[in-house]
Amino acid sequence: MDGLTAKLEAPDPGTVVIRLDGELDLATRDHLSEAVRAVLPVFRPGALVVDLAGVTVLDSAGIGALVGCWKLAKETGCTLSLRNPRPLAYAQLRLTGLLPVFALS
User: Fold this and answer.
1) What is this structure's pTM?
2) What span, in angstroms and rounded, lies between the C-alpha atoms of 102 and 88?
3) In angstroms, what CA-CA distances link 59 with 26, 36, 48, 51, 89?
4) In the chain, what is the greatest distance between 2 CA atoms, to the nearest angstrom?
5) What is residue 16's predicted lDDT score, i.e. its pLDDT?
6) Domains and CATH numbers, the chain
7) 36-63: per-residue pLDDT in tens?
8) Measured distance CA(5)–CA(24) in Å, rounded
């Protein structure tokens, strides 16, 4: 599947979940950044969770987009964490040393 879709959920007050489906790579990284830039000023969440369960490809550009979104969230006083990465994505995040940054263990 080409492309990336982002679906928003607000399971608790102060928390927004962005569920991603597809490929998070050079071609789609801006979709994630745009979603985060739209969510932060409107919802003003204290916690933003990016659910990676549906992400089939995560390359270095996608990881860079995740780090950029983490920085955007931090600037607004919001925490950004990841959940449900597939095994390959988890391994890439571990290899880059980003597991602690995104509160994954």
Assistant:
1) 0.94
2) 16
3) 8, 19, 21, 16, 8
4) 34
5) 97
6) 4-95 (3.30.750.24)
7) 999 999 999 999 999 999 999 999 999 9
8) 9
